[in-house]
């Protein structure tokens, strides 16, 4: 993402036009803002397309102790399939190097078919394993759908904080590059939770990989968002969620 002034405002018409283009061309969004769990959840729900009556394929990457939502698709009544990649800590007594494989289990959630893949979190299970699993899942979804429509695939990664804590920055960057490219290849919509301040070093480092950054906050008991779009002169106004 090109450098932009956070003090200037994006033109409203251009902002709406750019958002529509993101849906048609595919996009990856960095979702930032600390201390606003409920706001993250609300934006996440919308970006997953759970409020739409259109069919969606969903791919979720989350940890055992989910940061911002349960990802149980409580509003997803139309999605034909949801795939969940859950990062688990090593079980008691399990060697850190005992596995680098994925075990597939299936369960029903909200009357949709959900495939849940568990990847044990160990130093030996690198993010490249997860990145490859995401790529394979996207490929499988596209093949099974006979070609995805723009924005039909929705991807959520919740959250990036554990990755930045447990892996080298370069490793996280490579994982994000692989994952965002997989989403864009099928004109999907991906969003990645990073609950830090918009001017945090980690945000500044990672946001060039994304088409937009969305900052959320809680203000006067309500939830708000503002968008920083690539190639725009500045952010949108604060928009009520």
Q: Which CATH first-tier class would you pick? A: Alpha Beta
Largest sheet descriptor: 10 strands, mixed
Cα-atom Rg, whole angstroms? 17 Å
Say how many strands there are: 10
Average pLDDT confidence is: 76
Could you tell me how far the N terminus lies from the C terminus, measured between alpha carbons in angstroms?
Answer: 24 Å
CATH topology (level 3) name:
Rossmann fold
Discrete helix count: 6
Task: Tell me the fraction of residues in β-strands, as a range.
Answer: 25-35%
In the residues, how many domains can be counted? 1
Q: Assign an overall shape.
A: globular
Secondary structure class reads alpha/beta
| Unreliable runs | 1-8, 70-79, 93-113
What's the order of the H and E elements? HEHEEEEHEHHEHEEE
**Helix percentage:** 25-40%
Per CATH, which architecture?
A: 3-Layer(aba) Sandwich
**How are the strands of the largest sheet arranged?**
4-5-3-2-6-7-1-8-9-10
Task: List the keywords.
241 residues, alpha/beta, Rossmann fold, ten-stranded mixed sheet, 28% strand, globular, disordered N terminus, DUF7504
Describe this structure in words.
This protein is α/β, with parallel strands linked by helices and 241 residues long. It has one domain: Rossmann fold, CATH 3.40.50. 30% of the residues lie in helices and 28% in strands. It has a ten-stranded mixed beta sheet with strand order 4-5-3-2-6-7-1-8-9-10, with helices on both faces. Helix 3 packs parallel to helix 5. The longest helix has 18 residues.
